[in-house]
Amino acid sequence: MKGALIGCGFFAQNQLNAWRDIDGVEIVALCDRDADRLNQSAETFSIERTYSDAAQMFADGGFDFVDVATTVASHRPIVEMAAKAGVHIICQKPFAENMQDARAMVQAAQTAGKTLMVHENFRWQSPIQAALNVVRSGTIGEPFFGRVSFRSGYDVFSGQPYLAEGERFIIEDLGIHILDISRAFFGDAKKISATTRRMNQNIKGEDVATMLLSHEGGATSVVDCSYATQRMPETFPQSLLEIDGTKGTLRLDAGYQLTVQTTDEKKQDVSPPVLPWAEKPWHNIQESVLTIQQHFVDCIKAGKEPETSGADNLKTLALVEAAYLSASQGSTISLADI
Ligand SMILES: NC(=O)c1ccc[n+]([C@@H]2O[C@H](COP(=O)([O-])OP(=O)(O)OC[C@H]3O[C@@H](n4cnc5c(N)ncnc54)[C@H](O)[C@@H]3O)[C@@H](O)[C@H]2O)c1
Q: Does the Cβ of 54 fall within 6 Å of ligand 1?
């Protein structure tokens, strides 16, 4: 399969490394409006065709899929261009700026008959996959309570300065992943209530969010996120879990330690591997980039809908919108109203 990538920024370097690791895939064209970033990525990954204009790249064609690694404002026009050009699409999160755009993007890919997957990679982290395997196997019975927690004081703003500038920060950028993990474990949500705070006065958006979800299957989960938590050891970028089921409990603790308690207690180190191009502490996220991109390729080959498809991601994005609405109104929001 031949691919093209748009947006040669901070995170795209991981995506380009991961594409190079996947058998049978070659990135043949790159696009970025920033000439320096474009040329640097083209040189690092030996990619000959470069474009400053996505429309020109689609017009020239010669690839089966596009990887959209730009920030959110450009996602809808690029995804619609890609659908018109008749290529499969993998698009970074946040999928869209609002539900209307997201629904239009899903519709565009459906009309074109092409796969549209969101690069919603946190549930693909191997420690999360290990925990999902335990829960999905029924070992702890039916989950009725969960806490998915991401608390850190890591400086994300130096690598991604735009994160300090938006009116929205932690729910839209990071909470979106943690809400998606909650969906992966407990299913879709019916209702959500949320509180938010801004502790760091040097940024515009909120950096603390606490969310309570009622899931359709009856489970309750707490999703809590913070970039204002000073603690040692620093756990960035680990998502921690506590799950109570009818037959036992599961915990994913700091340092990737998985504990499953039923009639006995089993402890396992589920630390992710450090890929040759990865570096700590990002290795957990970097490995999931390879896993999710492999899933995209496997689904296209098998003609299957990806687990984190555009249609699926509408439900994660709706949780983000509902959480902001709840925090601003101080009320519980029904997902049916989003
Ligand atoms: N899944 C994860 O774990 C993870 C981690 C970090 C970032 N991200 C996401 O990745 C996306 C990119 O983030 P980043 O930090 O790499 O941003 P970035 O600003 O470093 O890079 C984005 C690049 O896209 C280019 N660009 C923007 N619009 C364009 C257009 N219309 N045509 C051509 N080029 C265009 C910019 O010039 C820039 O080089 C964001 O949506 C972010 O939320 C995901």
A: yes
Residues of the chain with CATH 3.30.360.10: 122-278+309-337
**H-run or E-run covering 58:** helix 54-60
Specify the CATH number of the domain 122-278+309-337: 3.30.360.10
Residues of the chain with CATH 3.40.50.720: 2-114
Q: 2-114 is classed in which CATH architecture?
A: 3-Layer(aba) Sandwich (3.40)
Question: Which residue among 11, 34, 158 is best mutated to probe the pocket of ligand 1, counting the most ligand atoms within 8 A of its Cβ?
Answer: 11
Evaluate: CB of 57 within 6 angstroms of ligand 1: no
Q: What pLDDT, in 10s, does the model give residues 48-99? A: 999 999 999 999 999 999 999 999 999 999 999 999 999 999 999 999 999 9
> How many Å apart are CA 41 and CA 53, to the nearest integer?
16
Q: In angstroms, rounded to a whole number, what is the distance separating the alpha carbons of residues 274 and 287?
A: 7
Instruction: Please tell me the distance between residue 11's alpha carbon and the centre of ligand 1 in angstroms.
Output: 7
Cα–Cα distance, 256 to 235 (Å, whole number): 10
pTM: 0.98
